[in-house]
Amino acid sequence: MTGLRKGWRQAKWEEPLVYDIGDPERTGYIIPFRDEEEEMLRELGSEPEEALKGKGLLREEAPPLPGMSEVEVVRHFTRLSQMSYGVDVGPVPLGSCTMKYNPKISEAIVRDPRIAYLHPYQDEDTVQGLLEILYLLEKWLAELTGMDRCSLQLPAGAAGELTGALMIKKYFSDQGENRDEMLIPDSAHGTNPASAAMAGFKVIRIPSTQSGTVDLKAVEAVLGPRVAGMMLTNPNTLGIFEDKILELADMLHSNNSLLYYDGANLNGIMGLVRPGDMGFDIVHLNLHKTFSTPHGGGGPGAGVVCAKEPLVDYLPRPLVEKKGDKYYWDYRCEKCIGRMRAYYGNIVPLVKAFLYIASLGGEGLRETAIQSVINTNYFIALIRGAKGYELPYDPTRPRKHEVVISARPLERETGVRALDVAKALLDEGLHAPTIYFPLIVDEALMIEFTESEPRCEIERYANVLKKIAEKAYKNPEEVKKTPRNTAVTRLDDVAANHPRSVTPTYRVLLRRLKGEKLIL
């Protein structure tokens, strides 16, 4: 079936905040713990309230939480879910976000009390099963990337970038070298220059060639004794594979500079080629992208940073080690940059990534990458030549996991922008792609279907894009007024983001309702 969803409408409940529904006199029902759960809690500590009271940490009064019956809770959150959209409803083709389907078996397993009730202060002897999972996960990720060791501590990809940049900084400091420049391609993710700057580097922008790859002549022109390294994504954000990567790595290494891999786009090459074999020295991975753990809306993410020797010494600690039949945390930190977050990482996403890899195996991961590339290029074949859109940077060249098309012809001829196209997609029951990124493409629509989407969904998406363009040429103002069928229609972007009006929490709302003129 490739037809459009006729007459799609999203639920639009006048749903109040949970605080406005609740009443302290109403309560739900707490299901008693199972016997084995009670026993586990007893082992963790018999009287936690008494322990807190002795340290002056116990509240003097209960927090002002809304009281609600079970049916009120179910109805409230069900209605909210009906006004939302996720990968369980339809495609979420956000380029470079890799919003793939999240297997439900993973959700069931991580709710097992043997995982859900673990605490970071437990003795290592009581969490040997979890430590084995993390130990194996590290080994698998090191093999997939061609690295020697990995730290699972990082909470997300941007934290991984900062970690890599700090590792490079400390490495050269230990060598007695003052290298304070980091090369960043103009097609890079925005967090790359931000992470480099936060680590104290001066960012040197490297332009792309007309074919969409790094300009090696520009790299050669800026290489010098102050260049610490280069942060690079491969495939890049245009979905194009950097085919001169070996030559680029040789150029950097000849200058004693390091090559850092942004793993956001690993899904296009996973199991086919390894960053370590391309010449990369440090790799960060987004487990919540490539290895299918739910993300968006703030998390939870899971970043991993892997490195080759001698940079392994600089990885955040602790790392999981094994001696005989026992697994343990190794806190030795002679050169490492220390911790990048409390405790041991976001455990639930790490376990889900382990399950994803274990269920697919090496061949399955390879097929995942191949299918994601097939889906992207099938979409390109469908949209190629469509009026209003164009494929920048060598349109004859195949893409990998994602593609960036431009609505520049549509904007130039009708005034309808990429933003308007994205809003119009919502009216058809489809999630918008990433827009206006990368910055080197005007009116960019960045689309990544992943391996999850069947052919019919890709065809439907292409058909809707063509339908929107047809409307734009006939009546552009109609497209500019979309969306109409969603729970929330088009917002005033300025008011929604202005420090005088943005309201991120219930407490801020109450203060605004009282007339306080807050500026956040």
Task: Note down, in words, how this protein is organized.
The protein has 520 residues and is an alpha/beta fold. The chain is 40% helix and 11% strand. It is globular, with a radius of gyration of 25 Å.
Give short descriptive properties of this protein.
single chain, three-stranded antiparallel β-sheet, seven-stranded mixed β-sheet, 520 residues, alpha/beta, 12 strands, Aspartate Aminotransferase, domain 2, 20 helices
Helical segment tally? 20
Runs with pLDDT <50, length 5+?
Answer: none
> What is the fourth-level CATH superfamily of the domain at 113-360?
Type I PLP-dependent aspartate aminotransferase-like (Major domain)
| Assembly level | single chain
- Strand proportion, as a percent range, falls in 5-15%
Radius of gyration: 25 Å
The CATH class of the domain at 113-360 is: Alpha Beta
Going across the biggest sheet, name each strand in turn. 1-7-6-5-4-2-3
Which bin fits the share of residues in helices?
Answer: 25-40%
Q: Which architecture of the domain at 113-360 per CATH?
A: 3-Layer(aba) Sandwich
Estimated structural class: alpha/beta
How far apart the termini lie comes to 48 Å
Shape: globular
CATH topology of the domain at 113-360: Aspartate Aminotransferase, domain 2
